[in-house]
């Protein structure tokens, strides 16, 4: 295995741990360990924090709305210092989300993340999430 391939595999292992232990498991200490102090979330909504604490706030709100939140990794690709994942988020809507009161509906939505790593820590994050599809499911307009 080349040095580049070894780096890609190490970076994928870091991202996998971030998804499984922080996103799915809610272990915020893992987020602290795996994010560099200069971490930036480039996909934060306007006016929202973008630093290392930003993801914690977002996932606290998501877990409050979807307490059984699960994140499945569908695809993971790595090249150089970047890792791309296609994920499926799912959960049962038991709390307010984006102004929608709890519906009790089971929902799922797609997310694509790109992260850049330095020395085994996340430093940049970009995401695209199907929030339109999620809101459609919460309103009962999406027949998934």
Describe this structure in words.
The protein is built from 4 helices and 5 strands, in the order H-H-E-H-E-E-E-E-H. The protein has helices at 3-24, 28-34, 52-65, 131-139; strands at 35-41, 70-79, 82-92, 106-118, 121-129. Helix 1 (3-24) packs antiparallel against helix 2 (28-34). The chain starts with a helix and ends in a 5-residue tail after the last helix. It has a 5-stranded mixed beta sheet. The protein is an alpha+beta fold and 144 residues long. The radius of gyration is 16 Å and the shape is globular. The model has no long low-confidence stretch (mean pLDDT 94).
Short overview:
This protein has helices at 3-24, 28-34, 52-65, 131-139, and strands at residues 35-41, 70-79, 82-92, 106-118, 121-129. By secondary structure, it is of the alpha+beta class. Helix 1 packs antiparallel against helix 2.
- Could you estimate the helical fraction of the residues in percent? 25-40%
Q: How many H/I helices?
A: 4
How many domains is the backbone divided into?
Answer: 1
Q: Into which percentage range does the β-strand content fall?
A: 25-35%
User: What is the CA-atom radius of gyration, in angstroms?
Assistant: 16 Å
Cα separation of the termini: 42 Å
CATH topology: Nuclear Transport Factor 2, Chain: A
What is the number of beta strands?
5
Order of strands in the sheet with most strands: 1-5-4-3-2
State the low-pLDDT regions, or none.
Answer: none
Give the biggest sheet.
5 strands, mixed
Structural class call reads alpha+beta
* CATH architect. name: Roll
Mass-distribution shape:
globular
What is the typical, i.e. mean, pLDDT? 94
- Which H/E pattern describes the elements? HHEHEEEEH
Question: What is the CATH class designation?
Answer: Alpha Beta
